[in-house]
Design brief:
Elements: E1 6-11, E2 14-19, H1 30-45, E3 51-55, E4 60-62, H2 67-70, H3 75-81, H4 85-88, E5 98-102, E6 105-107, H5 109-116, E7 119-123, E8 127-129, H6 143-151, H7 153-162, E9 166-167, H8 168-174, E10 179-181, H9 186-198, H10 202-214, H11 220-234, H12 238-248
Helix pairs in contact: 5-6, 6-7, 10-11
Bound molecules: hexanoyl-coenzyme A.
Length: 258
């Protein structure tokens, strides 16, 4: 598949998607988001892939939705086009783990894209923010909802109401980011995390992702019930037999992803 604003490659069972509008700080326009959606769907459907990494460049993961593209749109334009919903929500439908490897700016829609990923790994130079208030608007791709769930109300209000950016250290402390690494190690670290995940049983991995995501949608009792049903279902997997037999036999499991 030939893409213009992203590039894709595979490394073993890991797919790497690189956002590629460096001159615009990877500003996310509809075409880029459509290409990202197509790439993610293709990798999600590919049995040879177990995890996906999304990254940008050293200066920017993505500096937000493309302001130049949006500036003249009216209500009817965005409403009719179902802006954001149409081109941005693909990522929520991806069932394999998606890791954001963030260096430089992750602002506005860029931060929201990272928040839609399952794990965020940051370089030491990463900066996270929701500066839409500077533009006379508010976050529109889930920032006011996912950010408080990630970092709490106080920091989410602070970031969205003042446009203050968080550096990588603060983002890790606040729970937005799972690990911070030196810039030159970012991609290796993200690919290694993805490769580790991709070596496990794919259906078990998908069940973990589905169950953790359910925690954000359900009351605790329903979430635990949902987890229990998936846990019971896991006993239908050949990989459950293999994983537990391998432990008892003191050998490495050979998962078949079924
Ligand atoms: C369009 C952008 C852009 C964006 C940067 N550029 N961010 N173009 N949309 N979001 C462009 C600049 O216009 C410039 O183009 C080039 O990228 C380099 O940016 P500079 O500003 O010259 O670089 P620098 O001084 O290093 O500042 C970097 C920056 C700043 C701090 C990231 O560019 C900035 O504040 N960008 C806007 C961030 C933002 O407001 N994001 C939220 C967008 S709204 P030229 O042609 O001059 O070289 C949003 C809404 C979300 O995301 C709603 C749902 C998605």
């Amino acid at each position: 598949m030939a893409y213009e604003l992203i590039s894709t490659e595979t490394r073993g069972r890991v797919a790497l998607v690189t956002l590629n509008r460096p001159k615009q700080m990877n500003a996310l326009n509809p075409q880029l988001m459509q290409e990202l959606g197509q790439a993610l769907y293709a990798f999600d459907a590919d049995d040879a892939i177990g995890a996906i990494v999304i990254t940008g460049n050293d200066k920017a993961f993505a500096a937000g939705a493309d302001i130049g593209a949006m500036k003249d749109w009216n209500f009817i334009d965005v409403y009719r086009a179902d802006y954001i919903t149409r081109d941005w929500e693909h990522i929520r439908r991806i069932r394999k783990p998606v890791i954001a490897a963030v260096a430089g700016y992750a602002l506005g829609g860029g931060n929201e894209l990272a928040l839609m990923c399952d794990i965020v790994i940051a370089a030491e130079n990463a900066k996270f923010g929701q500066p839409e208030i500077n533009l006379g608007v508010l976050p529109g791709a889930g920032g006011t909802q996912r950010l408080p769930r990630a970092v709490g109300k106080a920091k989410a209000m602070d970031m969205c109401l003042t446009a203050r950016m968080m550096d990588a250290a603060e983002a890790e402390k606040a729970g937005l980011v799972s690990r911070v690494v030196p810039l030159e190690k970012l991609l290796d670290e993200a690919l290694a995390v993805a490769a580790k995940i991709a070596a496990y049983s794919l259906p078990a991995v998908m069940m973990v992702k589905e169950s953790i995501n359910a925690a954000y949608e359900m009351p605790l009792s329903e979430g635990v019930h949902f987890e229990r049903r998936l846990f019971h279902a896991a006993f239908a997997l050949a990989d459950q037999k293999e994983g537990m037999a391998a432990f008892v036999d003191k050998r490495k499991p050979e998962f078949k992803n079924k």
